[in-house]
Amino acid sequence: MVFPGDTNHHGTLFGGEALSFMDSAAFIAATRYCRRKVVTRHLDAMEFSRPIPQGSLVELVARVIKTGRSSMTVLVELFIEQMYSDQRELGCTGTFVLVAIGDDGQPTPVPNLNGDGPRLEG
C-alpha cells in the first residue's frame, strides 16, 4: 500500500521508495534462487511508466532472468492496483544484478538458470 509517508509533493510514490521496494523484491528472488547471501551489484535499467498514487496497492513480481558465474540478473515489475477496483496496470520495471557471496565475503558460484548446477565459466 502506498501510504502518505511514501509519497512526494505530487501525492505519488516517491521514486526512491519504489527503488527500495524493487531492490528488496530482487534480493528475495535472488536469495530464493541460489540460497546464498546476496548483495546488489548494479541497477541496470529502471523505467517509470506511470505515476503511482497514494492509496494504491502495489504488487512486486521478481524473477531471475539470467545468471553468470556468481551473478543473477533479476527483472522486477511493480504493478499498481486501485484499492476498490480490479484494475491492474504496470507502474514501473527495473533490472537488478545481484552477486552471491560466500562466508569469506567473496563472490561464489550460483546455479545455472537451466538448473544444471554451478556455472563455472564467465
Description:
The protein has 122 residues and is an alpha+beta fold. It has one domain (4-101): Thiol Ester Dehydrase, Chain A, CATH 3.10.129. Helix content is 16%, strand content 39%. The protein has 1 helix and 4 strands. It has one helix at residues 15-34, and strands at residues 37-48, 57-67, 71-81, 88-101. The protein has a 4-stranded antiparallel beta sheet with strand order 1-4-3-2, covered by helices on one side. The longest helix is centred in the first third of the chain and has 20 residues, at 15-34. The termini are far apart. Pfam families: 4HBT. This is Acyl-CoA hydrolase. InterPro entries: Cytosol_ACT (IPR040170), HOTDOG_ACOT (IPR033120), HotDog_dom_sf (IPR029069), Thioestr_dom (IPR006683). Residues 1-104 form the HotDog ACOT-type domain. One of its GO terms (biological process) is acyl-CoA metabolic process.
Describe, in short, the structure shown.
The protein is of the alpha+beta class and 122 residues long.
Q: How is the CATH topology named?
A: Thiol Ester Dehydrase, Chain A
Q: In the CATH hierarchy, what is the architecture at level 2?
A: Roll
For the termini, the CA-CA separation is 40 Å
Number of domains: 1
Record keyword descriptors for this entry.
1 helix; 122 residues; elongated; long-chain fatty acyl-CoA hydrolase activity; single chain; Acyl-CoA hydrolase; alpha+beta; hydrolase; Cytosol_ACT; Thioestr_dom; four-stranded antiparallel β-sheet; disordered C terminus; Thiol Ester Dehydrase, Chain A
